[in-house]
Amino acid sequence: MTKPILLSTPHLGDRELEFVKEAFDTNWIAPVGPHVDAFEQEFCEVVGARYAAAVSSGTAALHLALQLVDVGSGDEVFCSTLTFVATANPIIYLGAKPVFVDSDRTSWNMNPDLLREALDRRAQVGKLPKAIVLVHLYGQSADIAPIVEECDRYSVPLIEDAAESLGATYKGRSPGTFGKVGIYSFNGNKIITTSGGGMLVSDDPNLVEKTRFLATQARDPAPHYQHSQIGYNYRLSNVLAGIGRGQLCVLEDRVAARRHNFEIYQQALSNLPGITFMPEASFGRATRWLTCLTIDPATFGADREQVRLALANKQIEARPVWKPLHLQPVFAECESIGGAIAQDLFEHGLCLPSGSNLTSEDLERVIQSITEIHYSSVKSQVIKGYSTSAKAERKR
Ligand SMILES: *Cc1c(COP(=O)(O)O)cnc(C)c1O
């Protein structure tokens, strides 16, 4: 049987088991403990943040981040439209309303010009959003500087969803550390994983302290379990933090491996007609968490979905680019600022298998398959074209 090639799978290093064993040996099988503290501190060093709180998922981190900037019922939050649904769900958890903002083609992330225009319009009518959630998609940073400038100008807090972009840079610094709060994810498909987990970072110690408070059921400082506010059970287990510490040691290797995948794909496939790879914006290093490309069916000979299905037939898992949130049935009632570019990227965009543990044989199989799909589609179109012109000939 052919071995399946999956989109992005966990890739452990040498030290995770050692850290986990230490947790077992010391009986720190709890959502607090030395690995959690060390993981937070080591994470801060890696991304250049001042404070961090480890939590149970990236979604939990976003849910808390929104509360740190006082998002609540009825508020509006501007949010990138081209992203995974987890970016916007916590806005709904809080009874607030997402307003989706389109991407640009340079980074596939939020278009700063569009944001500026929208904020100007909103300021004129006195209806600024309560916060902005900026996504750094597929390992590539958004163009952060102009967005920070707009947020500062209007005093709207910026939350960065860097769940997919740990290891990326923007002008030499880590996306996720420019806003008031940033979040990361260690879900199983991300560039490093704790099987499930997330991190919230901020340069404001009060915000991170409040994160810990909310993530541990919002206990007042009293021995008798007193609560003046609703909290959550969102802390990361000390065992999983041990996995995270091991994974942090190999982050740079994982970035290199994923960038290598991208280069191999690009060298082999960019000459095929109709294939365009996701650009790397000039302002930083993309991790190429996933290798993404767009397919023009007219010149390639098959559309994105035909390619995806043909790959699935060969036991190769590829996925469409995220369906933009403004097109999701669940957000049908929400306002959207632009959206045509995200829609176009979705309709033509495909993510190829991109794990840091892919072998060169795996990459070769994906490349061969896509090349075959192109040539066989072009051939069948030529035959179809021939038979219709032959029919027309006969009619005459
Ligand atoms: C994975 C992801 C999240 C959520 O992270 P979890 O740890 O899975 O909860 C949020 N935003 C984006 C863009 C993601 O890709």
UniProtKB/TrEMBL annotation:
<keyword id="KW-0808">Transferase</keyword>
<keyword id="KW-0032">Aminotransferase</keyword>
<feature type="active site" description="Proton acceptor">
    <location>
        <position position="190"/>
    </location>
</feature>
<dbReference type="InterPro" id="IPR000653">
    <property type="entry name" value="DegT/StrS_aminotransferase"/>
</dbReference>
<protein>
    <submittedName>
        <fullName>DegT/DnrJ/EryC1/StrS family aminotransferase</fullName>
    </submittedName>
</protein>
<dbReference type="InterPro" id="IPR015422">
    <property type="entry name" value="PyrdxlP-dep_Trfase_small"/>
</dbReference>
<dbReference type="InterPro" id="IPR015421">
    <property type="entry name" value="PyrdxlP-dep_Trfase_major"/>
</dbReference>
<dbReference type="GO" id="GO:0000271">
    <property type="term" value="P:polysaccharide biosynthetic process"/>
</dbReference>
<keyword id="KW-0663">Pyridoxal phosphate</keyword>
<dbReference type="InterPro" id="IPR015424">
    <property type="entry name" value="PyrdxlP-dep_Trfase"/>
</dbReference>
<dbReference type="GO" id="GO:0030170">
    <property type="term" value="F:pyridoxal phosphate binding"/>
</dbReference>
<comment type="similarity">
    <text>Belongs to the DegT/DnrJ/EryC1 family.</text>
</comment>
<dbReference type="Pfam" id="PF01041">
    <property type="entry name" value="DegT_DnrJ_EryC1"/>
</dbReference>
<feature type="modified residue" description="N6-(pyridoxal phosphate)lysine">
    <location>
        <position position="190"/>
    </location>
</feature>
<dbReference type="GO" id="GO:0008483">
    <property type="term" value="F:transaminase activity"/>
</dbReference>
